[in-house]
Write a structure and sequence with these properties.
By secondary structure, this protein is of the alpha/beta class. The chain is built from 13 helices and eight strands. The strands form two sheets. The protein has a five-stranded parallel β-sheet with strand order 2-1-3-4-5, with helices on both faces. Strands 7-6-8 form a three-stranded antiparallel β-sheet, with helices on both faces. A hairpin with a 4-residue loop joins strand 6 and strand 7. Helix 2 crosses helix 9, helix 5 runs parallel beside helix 7 and helix 7 packs across helix 12. The protein is globular and about 60 Å long.
Length: 291
Amino acid sequence: MRILLLGNSLTTSNDLPHLLADSLQAEIAVHARGGARLSEHLNPNTKLGAKTQQALASGGWDFVVLQEMSNGPLRFRTRYGETVDQLAGQIKAAGATPVIYATWAYAPTCPKLEKLGVSADEMHAAMHEAFAETAQRADARLADACLAFHEHDDRLALYALDGVHPSPAGTQVALSCLVHAMADNQLTQPKGTVPFGSRPYTVYLLECEDGSYYAGITTDMERRLQEHLSRGPKSAKYTRTHPMKRVAATWEAADRAQASRLEYRLKQLTHEQKETLVQHPELVVGDEIPF
């Protein structure tokens, strides 16, 4: 297996390329530099772009992994999607499969969030929606480290001190997502890890004691409900201040991307629309809601 990694320091942190090569017994090439935008790989007039364009033209790759700058899908969503569309077209023409390396939102403690004007949860929701939508449109595989970080039991432990880059533990989570996205089956795993996304996804709607609703996603419904009920550090910020009353509705998703799209759509609904779905959950088909 031959894999080309296009990215920046989030791709190279903690020796991720070598870990990936060892996990998949693959030949890895890395085209990355700190702070690089994914669009640079389309520009043959730059050093990185010329190198990538030549590599794609030469072919012989099984997978090409695409990693955008840390806040690109949030700040420049349209441009990000257009860049992936162009690169995915070139990758497929070269006989390879595009893989979107969906990186994570900043840590809740990261000072850069204030400059962006969003919370960590808001950044996650926006980025994950962009990743899922782009992967579907470009017919690319999704290595969903974005959701894996967000759903992790010890989220802060996955970040380096800057709240942007991964800690060694975070790199292991990202590695598991990449392996799961590129393995021919889920039996191939990095040693000592469990591939995130190997369990089915449930999208759920909770009714809170004040009558409001909270939408979430999990691979372990029983565990997640206990976390919400505890109102502790692993619960959602919303259910800490709006205690849950009951599970109002649940839906099973075919994959991570579909689950994330449905969760995002639910969060955009009005209170009245959510109540309609509670009464008629069969109205949801896949990630489609009829209003």
